[in-house]
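Retro notes - structure team

What went well: the batch runner handled both jobs without manual restarts.
What didn't: labels got mixed up in the shared folder, which is why I'm recording both outputs here explicitly, each with its sequence directly above its tokens.

Job 1
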Amino acid sequence: MNVRAIAAKVLNQVVEKGQSLSQALPAIQQELTPKDKALVQMLCYGVLRTLPRLDFFCRSLMKKPLTGKQRDLHFLILVGMYQLLYTRIPSHAAVGETVNGAKALKKPALKGMINGVLRSFLREQEALIEQADQQPALLYCHPSWLVKRLQAAYGEEKAAEIMTENNQQAPMWLRVNARFNDREQYLALLTEQDKQAEGTDNNDNALCLESACDVYQLPGFEQGWVSVQDGAAQLAAHYLEAQPNELILDACSAPGGKTVHTLELQPELKQMVAVDFDEKRLLRVQENLDRLNLQATVIHGDASKPDEWWSGEQFDRILCDAPCSATGVIRRHPDIRWLRRDSDINELVSLQQDILQALWKKLKPGGVLLYATCSILPDENDLQVERFLASTSDASLIPLSSKISDTVCQRQILPNEQKMDGFYYAKLQKAL
């Protein structure tokens, strides 16, 4: 099948039908050659990163928008425009292959229309780009509601930096399993395979690859020597600081990266409990445990209603990796900005409050709760923690790490800070 047509179908599934890219893309890539698989991925990620600009160009060049059963052709045109603007594919090849995509989508009669729009774009693109750059939502390719929230939180200049970073491709981070190799030993194994990587401060397990690769090309991946996990997400297990013989809860645990990392760092736990509301994603938790030969109690349950799934003793430590807007990982998941709505934020904030209050009751006196999100919006992060502290008399902030000399109790990581994703952490202790 025509690769451009495949990309258009995936984009239609994501933008029009609300399916996540991480679901829609793998489902259609299975039957493709490695070369075509890579091209489809590049086109889908690229169009989603630049969607409002491409939409604007398309609307400007057409008298009537494509709707209904012709909507897939709209995304085919966007695929064509993306190639012309942002790739090294020769313009004649980009136009020709995109036009042929209409036949693959069973609409050959509209090949002429697609050809005309793309040819017009080639002639008029400079003027159209100048017009688009006058509007922040089109300049930075973020929905207006998110532009406003970021500007309110960080100011216009910093918000512009954040949105620019969101439009870059995220690097591939590795978490070295200390049970097999330390970071320097694993770096040497990568070097033997001509793979370049660098470490980061305050995380002895993390390596950031210079160029992404297939996970099965990584030394010892199938044996559990290494896992793929962003550097910011890796900090969770370090900040949690689990101790021997403790009972630990990882709430909202799927896909399990933080669960297994905690077990890697502290193999002498009394018990690790991993709970998640999404039963399908829980399968990933078990897959990670199996690959790494680790043990945990995996439970399907709602973190806001722990009485429904836990009747045991209170936990020594809880990792509350709360459901959030995921605005810190947009560069890794560009569809997030188009699947989220402004109204979602208040709903998420309310859910986070419910989860925090419910889990706090399951924490031992003197116990520690690490609150984490992959959001960069204050309502979900420091303001959320402020609200919790104001309403919870036996809760106090404590330093994130006992191994670092500073006394930081909260940390907001912004996208591409030390090449990491956007993340937030706060560490709370329950009074004795």
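Job 2
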Amino acid sequence: MTTLAADREIESLMSLHPKGFDLSLDRISRLLERLGNPQDHLPPVIHIAGTNGKGSCAAFSRALLEASGHRVHVHTSPHLVNWHERYRLAADGGGRLVGDKIFADAIARVAKANEGQKITVFEILTAVTFLLFSEHPADAVIIEVGLGGRFDATNVITEPAVSVIMPVSLDHESFLGDRVELIAAEKAGIIKRGCPVVIGAQESETALQVLIETAERLDCPAFVYGQDFLAFEENGRMVYQDEDGLMDLSPPRLPGRHQFANAAAAIAAVKAAGFEISHRVADKAMANVAWPGRMQKLPQGRLTELAPKGADIWLDGGHNPGAGVVVAEALAEQEEKNPRPLFLISGMINTKDQSGYFSAFKGLVRHVYTVPVSLSEASVPNDELAVRAVEAGLSAEPVSSVANALMLLRDTWDGPPPRILISGSLYLAGAVLAENGTPPV
């Protein structure tokens, strides 16, 4: 396979700079100043933080704005298959992933401006975001936080059109703290004085209180899920409600009841950012929204051909206990509507709470096949991961790969066509999409 020019530039950066996170804004600010501070020359910015739901909120926000006819830049992370997925440039009729030549050129210019100074690859690629988005016309920009909020490299935006805090729960404890209120305080770091804030549905009252208090202290207009806006299901439809009234909408194309709250946060955010959202636009956005690797029905491809005939195969990159809960709830909803035996194929990395993730599926999953995550050096060995699943009360066995798990299930299962969830890691989700021949576009 031909190596893309941008990939070669990134590989060169990784040989010179550390791969991980070094939470500080000093280096990124210095670099951006050398580039002319492109982050200060952007259209209205929707800046999104949170433990779970950031990507879904970004996807819904993009769908809403594009359904209104707006041109939108979108930055998300991490990518699944190609680095290019992190940068979607505005275009008539819908944004497109950045072209390889444009991307490679931007990386080279940012690396040159850095002049070999100490910096992380993530910071360089964040500077690339601002450079690209400042040089191409758009009506709005959606930027997803990479890690935390306060010291994330994206947090150099001084006046966002709106800051959005999606559900906060435990994750990345070694960086952000081991209590939910500490993590909420880090996420709240993207809130800027006087700028609107949308607070998505929070499971933790403690986290919610931290977020509300931060918004009040900084004199921010705040819109809180359950108080100022909400969404609920009624007769198979999604009803969105805020101070402007009700909208009776098509249910979100992204499966799971949790997506009603994610969609509501996006509607509130886009409106808080100053854009009008009509009933027609919102309905169109709910029907068209797409977010690869998050409760995505796996398209036909090389891997799906190995599964039991008629199998219903889903892919999800969620990797913490909070994600496990919402995915398990989504699968339980499907079980109510269309009962099928459920099997789980899972790979995880060692910085995640594996038993906590698996515990959400107790009583729902027939059997778990644990696999290594080939794209990550932090992969939990498949035999060790099987032990974690058993500790969570599940039946489990280690298998060498997703392909072998699908073939094993095909050869041993003699019941009705099963439902299969491949999950536990975004690295795994990316590897599956690549092997299946169906990368994001």
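One thing worth noting from job 2: Residues 77 and 146 are 6 Å apart (CA to CA).
We'll revisit the folder naming next retro.
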